Structures are given as structure tokens and as C-alpha cells.
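Researcher: We plan to redesign the surface later, but first we want a full-length starting point. C-alpha cells attached.
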């Protein structure tokens, strides 16, 4: 489960927590590359908890957009 991106963004002094979510999405792609390199054939990703759905819409909407973009990129051949 991708967790802590918002906390990391705040601790790193980033002005927008969505920057943390974007960096987390980039790290997922990198992680999947590592899995492929070592022959891991199946990976389960949990990209959003039900707790995240209670966040303010101003934070949730961009987060869902980041997740959508990640899934679209992962689905490309």
C-alpha cells in the first residue's frame, strides 16, 4: 500500500501535498520495474484506502487524478 506520501510532502517542505502523491506514483512505477527485473510475475497494489475517501474534495480530486494517470500508464503495452 502506498502510504505516507502526504506526510512526506509536508515534512519535505513541498507546498502542495499532491507533489508527494505524484512522487509516490513515480515510485510505484519504479518499484514495478524492480519487480520485473527480478522476475516477480504478480504484484498487488492498493492505491487508495476507504479512509482516503473522507478527505476534502480539494485533496481527493487531484489524488484520484494521479491514480487514474498511474493506472493508464501501467496499462500501456
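Model: Full-length starting sequence:
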Amino acid at each position: 500500500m502506498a502510504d505516507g506520501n502526504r506526510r512526506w510532502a509536508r515534512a519535505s517542505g513541498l507546498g502542495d501535498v499532491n507533489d508527494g502523491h505524484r512522487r509516490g506514483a513515480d515510485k510505484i512505477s519504479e518499484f514495478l520495474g524492480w519487480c520485473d527485473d527480478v522476475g516477480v510475475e504478480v504484484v498487488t497494489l492498493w492505491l487508495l484506502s476507504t479512509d482516503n475517501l473522507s478527505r476534502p474534495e480539494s485533496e481527493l480530486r487531484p489524488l484520484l487524478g494521479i491514480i487514474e494517470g498511474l493506472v493508464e500508464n501501467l496499462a500501456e503495452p
